[in-house]
Every structure is written in structure tokens, then in C-alpha cells.
Amino acid sequence: MTQTAARKLAVIGAGNMGNAIASLFVSNGWPTVLIDPSDTARANSRQRLLAALPQSASLLSWEAELQAAHDASLIIEAAPEVLNLKQGIFAQLEACCAPTALIATNTSGISINQLATGLKHPERFLGTHFFTPADVIPLVEVIACDHTVEAHIHNVMNLLRSVGKLPVHVRKDVPGFIGNRLQHALAREAMSLLENGVASAEDIDTVAKWALGIRLAITGPLEQRDINGLDVHHAITEYLYPDLENRQTPSQILSEKVRQGHLGVKTGQGFYDWAAPERKAALQQKDATLRALVALLGDRAGAQDEPSGL
Ligand SMILES: NC(=O)c1ccc[n+]([C@@H]2O[C@H](COP(=O)([O-])OP(=O)(O)OC[C@H]3O[C@@H](n4cnc5c(N)ncnc54)[C@H](O)[C@@H]3O)[C@@H](O)[C@H]2O)c1
Q1: Is 0.90 surpassed by the pTM of this model?
Q2: Mean pLDDT across the chain, nearest whole number?
Q3: Do the domain assignments include residue 27?
Q4: Which residue from 12, 17, 105, 136 has its CB within 8 A of the most atoms of ligand 1, so it is best to mutate?
Q5: Domain for residue 4, yes or no?
Q6: Does residue 267 fall inside a structural domain?
């Protein structure tokens, strides 16, 4: 983004992530347009954001056509995770947006280089991977494609800091970046444990939350290995690695649930029954609890605000 361009955000896709990203930027004073071809998505988004941020109503707008991004200084794409759909969106955006506009994708892990294929100006294209709920979780992974101008990465990281985020520069465009690689390794093992009858879903999640998760908020996996002792870790890897789940395809239990239409919270059934009153209540409390936790840990996150290698 140049110094002269007026700041304006265009969010492409007014779904789960698009709404949360818009909410974050609007709360920080950014005029924001949400662009989504679905009338229902725009109506839901309008209702949700105006209820949450009535004081920011004048900064928000909703449009169906990508052309509405023409005056945006920053565009964040949060459309469905489909390669050619996203590529089509970028091609259309290039045709209508300002030459100085930066185009970022919130892909969960599709290669940024692959997404940039076909762009006329890949130098202003990059990944900004937010974690859900994007208006609460501090971290954003920032990923360049081979052509992204380094100054744009630097500018976007500063801009993310200015709206209260903790950006991390992912130096290689690997599928899943950092967060989803770690998360999927854990989930693959969790599903394998469940499939093999080692413990119930509740007990597996309890171990993840109350042994690992609570510690992970303070010490990352590498810090924790240093604390435990690398010799101890090395000895464990020798007998444990051969036994860990390493399948290359989705686990059977996952495929079966998807086949049955048990997609989790969105259908009411997944590994848990989300229609149960106590689960509904826990879900409603989740974001408030996360906010409280982030507030508690806030100083720690803020202390790391100068990533190297920009
Ligand atoms: N949900 C998550 O936890 C999460 C986390 C990080 C990243 N992501 C990524 O963010 C992106 C969006 O995910 P989501 O969970 O918000 O999905 P979603 O299904 O909630 O929202 C997607 C929205 O895109 C709209 N859309 C469809 N075609 C479009 C088009 N051509 N132009 C503009 N909008 C279009 C849909 O109408 C929908 O409102 C995906 O790439 C996903 O992988 C999701």
C-alpha cells in the first residue's frame, strides 16, 4: 500500500472469516466493503456486523460485484477454499482494482505461488492467514509468493500490528504454512487414537486441552522440548515415531462422518452432539473465554512484535 492511497479494505467473501476480518478492521477505523455474490451471505453479514458494531455502521458496506473493490488499498480474499475459484477472483480483481492495491488471500494452506499463477502483478500478492475467530486470535501468518515485493510484506505486517495482530513471516510457501501443519499433525493423531479405541473423544480432547493446550499458550513445542531436555526427547522419538499415525489419506472415521453428513457444529453432529444444551452453552461461551485468555496473555504476545528478516 502506498503512503498516498486512502486506506480502505475490501473483503471478498462475507462468510465466517470475512465477517471476522471485516469486524477487526472496522473496529480499528477502516472503511470496509464486504463483497459476496450471495444475497443471503450479505444479509447475514449485515445483520451480524451491525449488531456487533453499531457505532461503525457508516464505515461498512456490502456489495455483490468485485468491481466494488476498485478503490480499496487492501483486499483480503476469504472466499471458499477452491483453487480455481480463488484464481478467477484474483484475475477479476486485477482488472478493476487500484494499481497500488495489495491483494491478500486468507487461504488455509493452498500454495501462495499456485494461487498467484496467472496474475499479471504477483509482486503485490501475498497470503495473510488468519485463525478463527479472526477478530480474537492474535496471530496472522504472512506468506509471500516468489514475486511478492519484500516492502509489501513489511507494510502488511506493520498494518496487521496496527490493528492489534501478531504477524509471523512464513519464509517458505509450504502447503498449510505453519499453523495448519501443526494442527493437522495433532488432529491426525487424535483421530487415529479414537479409531483405535485408545480413549473416547472427550478424553482425547481433555488431554489435548489440559495437558498440552494450556502449556502451549506459554511455551511452544520447541521451547517445551528445550525445557524437557533434548536427550529425553531424542530417546522418546526413537521408539515413538515408528508407532505414530502417518497415513497419507483422510482417516476412516473422518471420511465416514463426512459421508454421513455429520460435519460438526454446522450440522449439529460431528465427533460430538452439538445440539446438546451443554455443548450449545459451551460454544456460546467459547469466544468470550478466548478473549479473556488473550487479554491475560496479551503482554506476552505483544512482546514479540519485531519478527526478523523483513
Ligand atoms: N473457517 C476457518 O476456520 C478458516 C480459518 C482460516 C482460513 N480459512 C479460509 O478462509 C476462506 C473462507 O473460509 P470461511 O470459513 O469464511 O468460508 P465460508 O463458507 O464461511 O464463507 C465463504 C463466503 O464466500 C462467498 N463466496 C462464494 N463465492 C464467492 C465469490 N466468487 N466471490 C466472493 N465471495 C464468494 C460465499 O457466499 C460465502 O459467504 C477459505 O479459504 C478458508 O480455507 C478458514
Answers
A1: yes
A2: 94
A3: yes
A4: 17
A5: no
A6: yes
Question: Quick one: 46 and 164 in the same domain?
Answer: yes
pLDDT mean over 179-188: 98
How many structural domains compose the chain?
A: 3
**Cα–ligand 1 centroid distance for 239 (angstroms):** 41
Is 211 a domain residue?
yes
Q: Are residues 16 and 156 in the same domain?
A: yes
Distance 11 CA to ligand 1 centre (A): 10
Distance in Å, CA 298 to ligand 1 centroid: 28
Q: Which domain holds residue 290?
A: 260-302
Tell me the CA distances in angstroms from 282 to 191, 265, 276, one per residue in order.
22, 12, 10
Q: Which atom of ligand 1 is nearest to the CA of 14?
A: 39
Q: Are residues 231 and 289 in the same domain?
A: no
pLDDT digits (tens, 9 = 90+) for 233-277: 999 999 999 999 999 999 999 999 999 999 999 999 999 999 999
